[in-house]
């Protein structure tokens, strides 16, 4: 059980800075997810926490003590790897017990610890097998068992589910979440899968090009993304972005959004409910971000939401919802409607826009304006 | 669709041809191997039961040649030499090759150049290796005279003319030649080891030595086996290195079974005896290859 804090940490390989000025702190028992596309430096950061990579700048503290130069084995952390990294020549039991053996734990004690972990992960019947005789999900459990058995201060996960098939991935995700709730341990989890991040995390840190873009709870990340990158990376299908200009209409501040109807662009003025705060930006180009679920059928929408009518080019049923591809401000946008209200492709229908949840970003810097 | 009659019969001929094409292509080499390898193995086996001397004779005499063979001191020396040579050659080549591979695996600079340097001896023929080592080990030309020239007058390194040590000279030259090759085998296998396993072991608190001895090298078991089989059959058929290095001498102290067979068959007009020694060599190879092939085939069927 431990706290982790990273202050201004950086990593350079020669002249290339892989990580720049990373600062974050974690409470005891927190589940932090490092989220980012491949090559953003998230695995490097995890390796630095583990001690497998040297820290070029800044400090990493565990329970307040600087661990920059502490050997990985003395940091009391355990890691679960993407490839599971099981020792191929050892039985499952030996795999799990290896860390204890290296730490000089006695045979009887080791056996008891292994059995306890095996029971927790329901792999008791596999203890005599070799890793090659296990399925992907079973290997995953053994890899977790190897981390659990040492009762480390901090658990590190490096994309542990990405080698599993879709169904098993969902299952193991729940399993990891349950483990976290049972153990109340501090965990750092690296992934590129935003759904994994949303479902598991207490807090998410979104990384891009070696910098943290935003740290926050899943709902903060989803509802108030710090910039266009975070807004676009989290959420599926992705947020729709429109390049528009902030305008005033009477006492309302809003944006002008052209919607394509019968092949012709028809402009609509969309007032922003909290428009007052954009006062100083009137006349400036901005990026309006609307998630697909913020564009929905007008029939069931709140009465104050503005309604637009436009052509539906493509209809994509996903089961629970149907996605309609429409054209707004000259580019394709996705609207999420209830299947009961979806029209045929080529027809036009009325959509209500939930402007109270819309995000407005600076067109130049990509940072979100207010709210 | 109706087709002209000529065309359809033409097609069936082509169809038949293409169906048997793989067999047709493989047939010549199959027949040649059947005749020249397996045919002559049988012929040699037959000759070993005859009283052939300068020319093959076909009258079966039973196991007479084998009794003669086992009674000869020369054959005893050759076979003991094979055991000594094989044991040292295989273990030393494996140990040195493996060690070099582990050292080269530490992501050192100039690895490519070093790898080539170590691998190069394998590209040299045994005759060249033997000749070069013969000069180096010659007491009045090579290492011994060089060290004495430096001032260490009592220095002795004359294994090549010592009848008890001559076979070890052959071992030295052969190990020099083969360990680079073994290194290349191990290095490529080490490279395919999942680096995350090393990281995991590191976090588990294992030392580098322990990671290699306890985790990585045991997972290279198939490479050990392949290297062992390759080295084992190389050692049994070793012939030219002895010819170039010691000429089998001093006396016949460093002959190997292959040299014995050549000596008997082609120089002493004892074809029957030579054939008997060849059969003994074949059985030695088979004793190694058959269990290996058996385990390989069985493993495949289970996988």
TrEMBL record, chain A:
Which membrane topology describes this protein? Answer: Peripheral membrane protein
One Pfam family here: ABC_tran
Q: Which residues form a coiled coil?
A: none
User: What PROSITE patterns does the annotation carry?
Assistant: ABC_TRANSPORTER_1 (PS00211), ABC_TRANSPORTER_2 (PS50893)
Q: Which domain of life is it from?
A: Bacteria
GO process annotations (BP): carbohydrate transport
Using the record's annotation, list all stretches that form the ABC transporter domain: 4-234
Q: Which GO terms describe its molecular function?
A: ABC-type transporter activity; ATP binding; ATP hydrolysis activity
- The primary location reported for this protein is membrane
A GO CC term assigned to this protein in UniProt = ATP-binding cassette (ABC) transporter complex, substrate-binding subunit-containing
Q: Does the keyword Signal apply?
A: no
Tell me where in or outside the cell this protein is found.
Cell inner membrane
Signal peptide span: none
Q: Which UniProt keywords apply?
A: ATP-binding, Nucleotide-binding, Transport
Family label: Belongs to the ABC transporter superfamily.
Q: What is this protein called?
A: Sugar ABC transporter ATP-binding protein
Specify the species. Pseudovibrio exalbescens
TrEMBL record, chain B:
Q: Name one GO biological process term.
A: transmembrane transport
Q: Where is the ABC transmembrane type-1 domain?
A: 79-294
| PROSITE patterns (alphabetical) | ABC_TM1
Give the superkingdom in one word: Bacteria
The protein's topology relative to the membrane is:
Multi-pass membrane protein
* Keyword terms: Cell membrane, Membrane, Transmembrane, Transmembrane helix, Transport
Q: Give a Pfam family name.
A: BPD_transp_1
**Family membership noted in the UniProt record:** Belongs to the binding-protein-dependent transport system permease family.
Q: What is this protein called?
A: ABC transporter permease
Q: Source species, please?
A: Pseudovibrio exalbescens
